[in-house]
Amino acid sequence: MGMSAEESSSTRPEVGEWPELEKAEKLARGAALKWASGVFYQPDKLDSLPQYQIREVQRNRFIESRIKSTAQSYLEGMNTGLEQLRSALTDVQHVEEELGSIQKDLTSCIDSFRSLQDLRELATKHDQLEAVVQMLPQLFSVPQLISEGFDLLQSQNFLKAHLGLMDLESLRDSILSHVHNRNLLSPTNRTSVESYFGGLLELNNALAQHLWRTVAHATKLVSEDPSLFVSAVRIIEREENIDAIVLLRSQPHGFLPPGRPKRWRRKFFQVIQDTVVASYFQAEPNKTQGQGLSGHLACLQNSILAELRIVKDLMVQCCPPHYNILMAFATMFHQGLTHHLHGILTWDLDKQEIFALLHWAIHVYPSSEMMAHPDLLPEVDISTLGALLPADAIGSLEESYLGKVQASIAEWMQKALEMEFEEWLCGKEPESDYQGFFQTTLPTIAMKMLDENIRVVSLISDIFQQKVLEMALGELEAFLGSLYEKLVEFCKAHHQEPMASKYYTARLLSTVNNCLALSSSISALCANGLPPEEPARMLPSLHTALEKMQKKACQLLLEEMLADLKPHFAQLPSRQWLLDDCQLTNNICEVIEKHAEDFSRTHKPVSMYLLSEAEHLVMSQYVKSLLQKRMMCRTAEERTKMSTRMLQDSSQLKELFCALGLEEDKLSLKVIADLQQIISVKDPSMLGLEVLGFMSKYPDISDDHISMFFYLRGDISKEICNHVLGIMAQNPQVLPENYDPIFSNILVPAPELPFCLGNICVPS
């Protein structure tokens, strides 16, 4: 239904009543003017003005009709809502009236409800009495059933005894639960019920004792008669199921029967573990130390393996699969062994005990001889159990073992050294091997002991073997240092009483051979004691100690030779030497041959080294004797004889040493033949050239050496001497890199000072 113009105008708001409407109208008018000015700006556009006017009028009429339709729909909806609100208000008022009526009725009935309380209490008591009457036969039979349960236990009929126990517990628990559900479980009521069923607790404890006794002897029972053990396991599983049901039922109301949960399965494994510990790991120190410890560990190995075999072959069939009984036993033995070995670590163990413990824990226990035995695989997985001893405990044991072995080796080495020194002074010739080389048993015994200790620890680990090897070599190095000191002491004793050390040279030769034997033995020891990927090596310091010891013995041997040669070299040079037709040289050769025969009783290359050093010693002593100012040639004839004698001596000595095995081109005796050329020069003015040629061969010769040889000639004036020395100074020589010194080791005697009295000096 439409609205008239008057109605529309009457509903239109006054100007200023709605500010937003006035603002919108102004904006609309402004927008319209802007549009019109843009469209009708040109005169030719004014012709279409009526058309625009008609179109806009139609558009406005359409908009007004839509607005009116929307407003009318809105008003109709408001009318409908108002009608519904009026209806709801009427309904609420009606409900309120009804509730008031009900409240009046309930108020009038309260006294009637109170009168029913006594009836309710009477009904409750009736229900309780009815339940008690129904249970009376069972309640009266409780003492008899308990007594029958004890009888069944005595006859070892565990399953029937447990069935009776379950029935009695069910009866007791139902009574307690019934009372608890009716909020009547007061301390007095609970005590009354539990006291009536007091024998039930004793029966339960008696059954448990029988069960745990059976479990404690499980391995024996399954071998003889597994029925008792199977019954015990079935009873334990029944109790576990009852525990689960009781715990589930207790969640709504929180009631748990007395003694629940029993957790007998946990107790089952605890009893087995206690039995394992008591049966295998209660060893006393005084019964297991020494050889007893090795026997104790071997006994543990055999008994534990036998026990695990029984478990796998027989007990596994008697237990539910989820028990994993074989791995459970293996874990218990592993834990018990770990605790037991930690207890053994607190004892005062010697090195044999430490070795036995280390070898057993590291190698025997996880090997196929015990926990990885084929009879136990694959059920027993030793990798999940870990090591018996932690790494720090093994490291501590290895350090302790290393210290004890080191102390033992040091003590033995000291005793061996004392025995060796006593043999040196005993006045007996040392033993010889099948080749005639002097030697003693010291290297063999020492290296055998070291080798045994190193080989033993190879059973533990390669790394530990290397540690023991390094320790042994260090002790051997210290032993060589002490042996060197004893050798020096032996030398002093020999010089004080030569007769007391009759076989002094033989002992020195045996010492040299012992050093060679030790050197080869140490190389073999290092090769055996190191991993295959590492090369055999000898500690540099140990090599130095051996070399020092060997060179000292060789030095003492050469000193003995020198002592025998000195009386002969004291006669050289002399006029008797020029006239004795090589007798002095023959005597020197006899001494050389005698000592060379001794040198031959040492192994190569030391024997050749001694010969080479002896040849050098003879040469240096020969040259040194010429420089002692014992004679001065008076005539050219004497100089010729001296030159001839030096050539003969050089040739004879070279033939001797070549016959003994030295190579002629490596002999230093040729210096004697070269020196005789300085003596044999007839024209002193040519000595400068001769000396320069000599210096080119022997660049270490000094002015003093040349001066002494000029003195030996006896015909060199001071001017010629100074001239030659000047030539030497103008032509200094540089020692070649591989030059073997000759004259550097030959000392020139100090010049004799003239005896002075006042202003007059008299040559001495």
The global form is: elongated
Q: What is the radius of gyration computed over CA atoms, rounded to a whole number of angstroms? A: 62 Å
Read across the widest sheet, the strand sequence of neighbours is 1-2
| Mean pLDDT across every amino acid position | 81
Describe this structure in words.
This protein has 764 residues and is mainly alpha-helical. It is built from 28 helices and two strands. Strands 1-2 form a two-stranded antiparallel ribbon. Strand 1 (755-757) and strand 2 form a beta hairpin.
Condensed summary:
This protein is mainly α and 764 residues long. The protein has helices at residues 5-11, 19-39, 49-115, 117-140, 142-154, 158-181, 187-196, 198-216, 218-224, 227-253, 264-280, 285-288, 291-313, 325-345, 351-364, 391-424, 442-457, 462-496, 504-529, 540-569, 575-579, 583-599, 606-626, 636-660, 670-680, 687-697, 703-713, 718-730; strands spanning 755-757, 760-762.
Topology:
Blueprint lengths: L4 H7 L7 H21 L9 H67 L1 H24 L1 H13 L3 H24 L5 H10 L1 H19 L1 H7 L2 H27 L10 H17 L4 H4 L2 H23 L11 H21 L5 H14 L26 H34 L17 H16 L4 H35 L7 H26 L10 H30 L5 H5 L3 H17 L6 H21 L9 H25 L9 H11 L6 H11 L5 H11 L4 H13 L24 E3 L2 E3 L2
Antiparallel strand pairs: 1-2
